[in-house]
Design brief:
about 55% helix
């Protein structure tokens, strides 16, 4: 096997400053996006509450949710087969 010389990497103060600037800009964008998402979700939650109060307090998707005392069931394709049948094929 042929050997080759190791690759030398040099970092200058300018490289580090550019990285730190881009990192701070990225963090600022993420923080700004997070604040916008939080504000938007709060606004949509307030809108839903207003819609529920106007519509008599009934959420149309409530019928899809299990009642508090019920256990949610997941319907699976091979529900009638036993564990051994599923494993053995």
């Amino acid at each position: 096997m042929l050997r080759r010389a190791p690759t030398a990497i040099t970092l200058t103060a300018e490289d580090i400053a550019a990285y730190e600037d881009s990192r701070l800009a990225r963090l600022a964008r993420l923080a700004h996006a997070s604040r916008e998402n939080t504000a938007a979700s709060e606004a949509s939650a307030a809108g839903r509450q207003q819609n529920q109060s106007r519509a008599g307090g009934a959420d149309p998707s409530d019928e899809l949710r299990p009642l508090p005392g019920e256990k949610a069931r997941v319907v699976r394709v091979g529900e009638g087969r036993t564990r051994t049948e599923r494993i053995m094929g």
